[in-house]
Every structure is written in structure tokens, then in C-alpha cells.
Specification:
Helix content: 10-25%
Distance between the termini: 10 Å
Order of helices and strands: EEEHEEEEEHHEHEHEEHEEHEHE
Number of domains: 2
CATH class of the largest domain: Alpha Beta
CATH superfamily of the largest domain: Medium-chain alcohol dehydrogenases, catalytic domain
CATH topology of the largest domain: Quinone Oxidoreductase, Chain A, domain 1
Number of strands: 16
Strand content: 25-35%
Low-confidence stretches: 76-83
Largest sheet: 7 strands, mixed
Number of helices: 8
């Protein structure tokens, strides 16, 4: 099968398409025939060596949408219909394949993932659209969990027009939180359509919000917008500013959660969450997609189609 990998760190030109063996699932895993896989900023970080590595081959891609192709063998046996739980060959699914140092990722024709990282694909979306859901929506949902906001509380989302920020706006608004979106002026209409009650395109009031979800990674500047005793959550693990004024500070590190992903897929079908695709590329065009991501200004996600 074909897969996008890096063997040396660098720019978009470091991405290589290689031929490799189709991976085999073990107990507790399923194999997905990938129909679409999203390109995320974390993939650019892996490609550039931000997360380090020991050399050799590193696979790219965290998001996948496709069809269950095989399930792992049952515990204690070498064969048989297996331990993929409720999954059967032919099921249409989405999944998060977490990790920055794996030899293969979702940017491939097939991927093996833990069965409990898989969820039914949204019924109302095609595979390209569905592939944009797992990483970014789970990150937004788990960040909101950390903020612990009750209905009626105020939340500022920075980078609200981005993928994580956009999902955060929609999820928070759905939970009854009063959302202010911080984004570029040209994105005002977009973030309001996602459910933001207010738009901040310039000056933001210091201490004016119960919480900030800092999807734009502004750090201390965003922390200043939280009221005394409020809460701040960033999206880069371990990269939060030092706490001040009694503000509770943390970062989200996304984790695979098939049950939560299934609920998010349900929200897509209910019209609560919007799946945004910017452009699609063939898997062989992965270096070109990385170059487009590096240009910036992408609204929605770039998606690779094997």
C-alpha cells in the first residue's frame, strides 16, 4: 500500500510517498480502508521535527474516515472473528490515530487503530467531510471539559475561525455558554454563523470573561482576558502561561475516545456541528498539501484522498 511518511525532517518536500506492507490488526484493533484523511498542523510539526524522533520512518496523519476492512483476532486465539468489539467488516467509521512517532499514520491506504478509538461515521456527511471531525472536534470538546463552564457563563475563543476554534464555538454555544469569538475581521460572519453571540476583532477587555479557550496560542495576552479566579485552557500540551490572579490554567492533550467521537458525530447529524473542508488532494499530492498548509489562511481543513 501507499503511505505518506518522513524519513528526514524538513519542509513540505520532506514528505515522501512510499510503498509498504498493509498493517495487520491484533486483538483489540481494527483495520480501516482509508477513504479520506485530514492534514492538520500537528502533521507539519511532525514533518519539521518539532516532536523529535530517533530517525527512521515516521508516519503522518491522525484523522481518518473510511470502512472497517478487518478486525483483530479474539483474545487468546490466533484467528476468528475477533475482538474489534461492535465493529464488523464494511462498517463506515471515523477514528483518531493518536501519536507523533508512529511508523504509519492515517495518510495511507490502510490504517490500524484501537477499536475503542473508532466511531460510526456521521450519516449526513461524506468521507471527506467526516475526516475533518476526530482530532479537532475531540480537542475542542476535551478543552471545554477542562474549563467546566456552566450555561450562561462567558467564554472567549481565540482563533475562532480555525478548525479547533470553530468546533469550540459551536459546542460551547450548544451547551448554553455565551461565546465571544476572536478572529480576523473578515471572519466575523463565519464565526457568528457558528454560534458566537459576540465578535471581537480588535481590542478585548482585560478580565472580561469567565474563561478563555486559546486556540490561537496567544498565551499571556489571552490569559489577561480572563477574570480573576476564572479559567484558561490552551491547545499545546505543556505550553500554558504561568497562572496569575487565581486563574486556573491548563492545556488540553487530546486523547482517542470512540464513545465521545460517536456523540460528536451525532451532533453533526443533528446540525449542531459543521464540517468544513477547504481543499482536497490525492495522497500522492501530500507534499503539495503541506505546502498549502504552510501558506496559512486556510479556513476548514485540507483533506487527502488515497
Amino acid at each position: 500500500m501507499r503511505a505518506a511518511v518522513v524519513t528526514t525532517f524538513g519542509g513540505p518536500e520532506a514528505v515522501r510517498i512510499v510503498e509498504t506492507e498493509v498493517p495487520e490488526p491484533v486483538a483489540g484493533q481494527v483495520r480501516i480502508k482509508v477513504a479520506a484523511a485530514t492534514l492538520n498542523p500537528v502533521d507539519a510539526g511532525v514533518r519539521a521535527g518539532v516532536f523529535g524522533g530517533t530517525g527512521g520512518r515516521i508516519g503522518l496523519g491522525w484523522d481518518a474516515a473510511g470502512t472497517v476492512d478487518a478486525v483483530g483476532p479474539a483474545e487468546g486465539s490466533g484467528s476468528g472473528s475477533g475482538s474489534g468489539g461492535a465493529w464488523s467488516v464494511g462498517d463506515e467509521v471515523v477514528a483518531l490515530d493518536y501519536g507523533t512517532g508512529k511508523p504509519l499514520g492515517t495518510h495511507a491506504e490502510y490504517v490500524v487503530v484501537d477499536a475503542d478509538a473508532v466511531a460510526p461515521a456521521p450519516r449526513t456527511a461524506d468521507a471527506v467531510e467526516a475526516a475533518t471531525l476526530p482530532l479537532n472536534a475531540l480537542t475542542a470538546a476535551q478543552a471545554l471539559d477542562l474549563l467546566e463552564l456552566a450555561p450562561g457563563r462567558s467564554l472567549l475563543v481565540t482563533g475562532a475561525a480555525g478548525a479547533v476554534g470553530g468546533y469550540a464555538v459551536q459546542l460551547a454555544a450548544h451547551q448554553g455558554v455565551s461565546v465571544t469569538a476572536l478572529a480576523r475581521p473578515e471572519d466575523a460572519e463565519l464565526v457568528r454563523s457558528l454560534g458566537a453571540a459576540h465578535f471581537a476583532g480588535g481590542t478585548v477587555e482585560a478580565g472580561g470573561f469567565d474563561a478563555v479557550l486559546d486556540a490561537a496560542v496567544l498565551g499571556e495576552a489571552a490569559l489577561a482576558w480572563v477574570r480573576d479566579g476564572g479559567a484558561y485552557v490552551g491547545v499545546i500540551p505543556g505550553a500554558s502561561p504561568a497562572p496569575v490572579r487565581g486563574v486556573r490554567v491548563g492545556t488540553v492533550e487530546v486523547s482517542a475516545d470512540g464513545a465521545r467521537l460517536a456523540r460528536l458525530a451525532g451532533l453533526v447529524d443533528e446540525g449542531v456541528l459543521t464540517l468544513r473542508v477547504a481543499e482536497t488532494y490525492a495522497l500522492d499530492e501530500a507534499p503539495k498539501a503541506h505546502a498549502r498548509l504552510a501558506e496559512g489562511g486556510v479556513r476548514g481543513r485540507l483533506v487527502l484522498v488515497p
